[in-house]
Amino acid sequence: MSTFAKRERLLLADLLETVGPEAETLCEGWRTRDLAAHVVVRERRPDAAGGALIKPLAGRLEKVLAEYAAKPYEELIQLIRTGPPRFSPFQLKQLDEAANTVEFYVHTEDVRRAQPGWSPRELDAVFQDTLWSRLERTARLLGRGVPTGLVLRRPDGRTAVAHRGTPVVTATGEPSELLMFAFGRQSAAKVELDGDAHAISTLHESKQLGF
């Protein structure tokens, strides 16, 4: 079984440690300390983490995030490295891979790509295929609110429809780049957009991509 989630977890922890607690990220309003707190709360505080999707719990989530962000930065990094608590469902390797491979990849890139002079990582074909598999399954959820039709296309021609509609914009790139684009990191994703010029401009300005 692959261990991409574990690899990306450790890469994220190392990167957070290297850049420090006040570095910028691609997550609007978040410094690295805030992103680290988010990762820890997601794994260790399911009573609050649901606030990301359930509006009545949003206030509790913000409070818990603030509490964790106030902890020593080194402690947050260590909690990320060691992973979820013993009885967490994330301890199951299959669930860890399914839930965390994309989570940790995207957040690692959130930090990397916010730093000056960044360049795309060289990713092996197996990992690219893994990211594509995840993207195929979630494309319509990620693109549900965009104002145009949106097709995601790999260089080999394989496609996933993120949103049905007209006019259609086609985003072409490696799965890793399409994933960043679909998660709302349009400005930092290395993709080529084809379609009506106005539709492309509208899509770039849209805040509806991603969760």
Automatic annotation (TrEMBL):
InterPro entries: CHP03085, DinB/YfiT-like, Maleyloyr_isom. It comes from the Bacteria. NCBIfam families: maleylpyruvate isomerase family mycothiol-dependent enzyme, TIGR03085 family metal-binding protein. This is Mycothiol-dependent maleylpyruvate isomerase metal-binding domain-containing protein. It comes from Streptomyces bungoensis.
